[in-house]
Amino acid sequence: MTAVSSRLEGLFGLDPATYRPHPLHAGDRSYPETNCYADVIIELLHARGDEPLAAMGTTARLDFEGDQWTFFKPDPADLEALFGVDIHEMQPYRPIPVEIAELLAIGRTMTVELDAWFLPDTASTSYRTEHVKTTVIPEAIDPGRGRLHYFHNGSLHALDGDDYRGVFRLDTADPATLPPYTELVRFDSGPRLTGAALRAAARDRLRAHLERVHPGNPFDRFGARLADDLPGLLAGDEAGYHAYAFATVRMAGAGFDLLASHVEWVLPDDPAAADAAAGFRRIVDASKMLGFKLARRRAFDPAPAVEAMATDWTTAMAALRQAID
After folding, report:
1. pLDDT 10s digits, 260-319
2. Contacts of 186 (CB under 8 A, 6+ apart)
3. Which of 14, 55, 90, 157 has its CA 20 to 30 A from that of 47?
4. What pTM was computed for the model?
5. Domain range for residue 118?
6. CA distances (Å), 295 to each of 102, 126, 133, 221, 223, in order?
7. Is residue 5 pLDDT above 60, yes or no?
8. Which residue among 186, 207, 235 closes a domain?
9. Does 163 share its domain with 229?
């Protein structure tokens, strides 16, 4: 049986108290946080010394999926091609702290879905108030003393004590409780590109994603669904609104915010790319405006705003294709 570590086993030797997040998580952005998975990958790459903007080309394929916008993630193939980072599902057949410590000891880590009830960085939302599944990436762990450093949302955080015991379910042994979903993260799966080579490779990956954009305008589909859903949203409760808004206008806004920044990074000084980024940012602004209107819980006509978003998507995507060719 594996002995319990009594020291902090770390990946990069970072201190949560002095850690500085990537500018994608700066407070002046329209969406300082995107979604739990994209955010932890951004900070993992940033902490390693890579440029996470290179891996955001998959946001070109954002689509309305029927009842929600795409829950976007950096494409695993992009991460491997650009940085030599391989992320794939793993089997957590032992206690999660043991798995984390052993991976960190050999220069690897993992993604793990945990309960935000026990994550102190969610103090303004779900900490000790709501059970919410969310993804973190451990940066350091001391199983002996019960301490964890972890990437979550827009930064690096720490927890210990009751939070440590709770987040890993150390005081419960219910056989009906399923283990969390986990992925192995390793950093030795190919070359780690930098500089001009990274930018060129990211441009190639963006071109490949553009070739796989679904046909039709996603905002046409979204507009039709929002018109159908709006009466129920206005008649429903606040929790239902928040869930709907996160899956729709917030996910779209955060995704197109990332896409605009990605385009500017991949194609600097290109006028068509600048036009594309400006169009995507108009979609971001409109998404925030729709979110505010939905939050007021009063009847309104969303059609003009969504039609403008559809127009901006068409013109921005055309400009992006012009720039990438």
Report:
1. 999 999 999 999 999 999 999 999 999 999 999 998 888 999 999 999 999 999 999 999
2. 85, 86, 108
3. 90
4. 0.94
5. 9-186
6. 45, 19, 23, 22, 17
7. no
8. 186
9. no
